[in-house]
Design a protein that fits this description.
It is globular, with a radius of gyration of 14 Å. It is built from four helices and three strands. Helix content is 41%, strand content 21%. The protein is an alpha+beta fold. The protein has a single domain, classed as 2-Layer Sandwich (Beta-Lactamase).
């Protein structure tokens, strides 16, 4: 909570991450801290927290991107199978949570 408060925000950088998540509305996956460093300027803090892989799941409702769910884990954690599981299990609850939060 100290480093990344709940419902916190970070400045948006218009880079490859932005294109993947915002424009293409695809999941962004990086499985090493080196790949995270390419798109997140706070990669040193992320690494210091023991996180070296990430999935950013776009939350799209009615064709509009309303946020992302950001999941971090140890190096190499987000295999294609785990990403598919996230897609299958978390997409609908993420949309519901976003709708409730917007009320």
């Amino acid at each position: 909570p100290t480093n990344y408060p709940g419902s916190g925000t970070k400045p948006i950088r218009y880079d490859s991450w932005f294109d993947i998540v915002h424009k293409q509305r695809r999941y962004f996956v990086a499985n090493t801290i080196a790949d995270i460093a390419k798109v997140f300027p706070d990669y040193e803090l992320i690494d210091s927290l023991g996180c070296q892989s990430v999935v950013n799941m776009p939350v799209v409702i009615g064709g509009e991107l309303i946020g992302t769910v950001n999941m971090l884990h140890e190096d190499g954690y987000y295999t294609p199978e785990r990403v598919h599981l996230i897609r299958d299990v978390l997409a609908v609850p993420a949309k519901l949570a976003a709708l409730v939060a917007a009320r």
